[in-house]
Amino acid sequence: MSVRISAGDQKGRLLRTPRRAATRPSSAKLRAALFNILGSRIAGARWLDLFAGSGVIGLEALCRGAAAATFVDEHPEACRCIEDNIRMLGCGDRAVVRCLPVRRFLASGAAAEAACDLVFADPPYGDSARADQLDDLLRLCEQSAMITPRAWLLIEHAARTTPPTRGGRWRAIRTYTYGDSALTLYQPDQPIQS
Q1: Most buried of 13, 82, 178, 187 (most Cβ within 10 A)?
Q2: Which pLDDT band, with edges at 50, 70 and 90, does 2 fall under?
């Protein structure tokens, strides 16, 4: 299976996706909505793609002007697929792949990497079917040194799941539904004092 980059300097390029049945690439409609929501915030941003799968979301962010992207997935096949896609697009100087569980990555606070200001998470729907599991993901994000206090979080989840309205320092701004999938945007609850 393959997916296409829908916009940016690599528009139309085909990307590989892992063969694992559990990998479900985000739909083109959801991806278009996500990037419309973010608009000009993408330019120069540091992107974090959690449960990255094929990496299509983070790679498209790079094609749309993100400064850097970190891809996290625990499955070696997915990591190899992301690395192949990065090579194919020629953006290896701005991309890092971390092949480990998201929980461990967020807890690690890898000092060698700068904190990210845009975060996309697409946990397996079977693992995110309950709102308390999304609560756990938000808590992990709040505790992570890998995410700035001003970061925006976008979490893809099953449309049947009611996402938490608050999570740590973030609050849900809006949920967008596309068929069986939904995308919830979280922004910092309070303005951060300089």
Answers
A1: 82
A2: low
- CA 155 – CA 34 distance, rounded (Å): 10
Instruction: Residue 82: give its domain's CATH number.
Output: 3.40.50.150
- What is the rounded CA–CA span in Å between residue 188 and residue 26? 25
Which residue segment(s) compose the domain that 55 sits in? 2-188
In a domain, 194, yes or no: no
133-162 residue pLDDT tens: 888 889 899 888 889 989 999 999 989 988
pTM (2 decimals)?
Answer: 0.86
Buried b (16+ CB within 10 A) or exposed e, 150-189: ebbbbbbbbeebebbeebbbbebeebbebeebbbbbbebe
Q: Quick: pLDDT tens for 159-186.
A: 998 899 988 889 999 999 988 889 999 9
